[in-house]
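Whether sequence alone determines local backbone shape is best considered at the level of individual chains. In the encoding step, the backbone of a single protein was reduced to a row of integers, each denoting a local shape. For completeness, the protein is quoted in full, as a sequence line and a line of structure tokens.
***
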Amino acid sequence: VRWINRFFTIYVFDFLTSLNLPMWLVLVIITLLLRAIVYVPTKKSFLSSAKTRVLRPKVEEINAKYPNKEDALKRQQETMALYSQYGSSPLGGCLPMLIQMPIWIAMFNFVPNAIELRQQSFLWADDLSAYDDLISWSTNIWGLGNHLSLFCVLFCLTNLLYSYMSMRQQRDSMAAAPDQAANMKVLQYSMFLMPVMFFFMFNQNASGLSYYYFVSTLITILQYFAFRWTLNEDKLLRQLEENKKKPRKKSKWMQRLEEAQRLQQEQQRKAQKQGKR
């Protein structure tokens, strides 16, 4: 992902530093620019989750129709057909994650190596290129060191809040079948492990990097509230009902999925015949 830094981050960073702006403000501006780049896919992701949420009662009807584990394939087929009819995709929320990951990695490589951040202070951090040991002690603790970086703590707390919001959004959107409820719950709560991992990764890293991720995550949370506040779910449901009336061409992904399901059904029938024999 070095091309992100080579053709974007470095030029923007050099331009902003030439204006003699403080480094904390330079990082904020870069964060805003990067968030603006991924704004459209982020909004599409939220709309995709909202579509799934308003269609949840219909999915729950399908789950009630096929409650048994052996009916999982039929349940999946009807659910995907439902999403296709209404012009929705439960996987639409994955796109922003895939787009943001290269940016996330690029900044992870850029900020600690930016020599302009050395000896640049902001609030309690004396050097944005090193960790901010606002709280320290004499004994080294494995994985933690002998200090507590406040910017790292702030980043992990905002990430914990974002994980909680994502879990609630996923829980409100996805209607898990009875035999899948336990797996969904484990998957949702596993999201809380990421902030814990980040804490041990960033506590001894550059405070400027934790500061950047803190601001970026905070902006993401504010965007979520803004999208949720301005969304009219009744209007969205009416739009989906209108989409259902329009003839829709099956996407190649949907065609491949149906073909895979057909092959799976044939394998199940062959396995059942062999079992009877």
Q: What stands out?
A: The first strand starts at residue 133 and ends at 141.
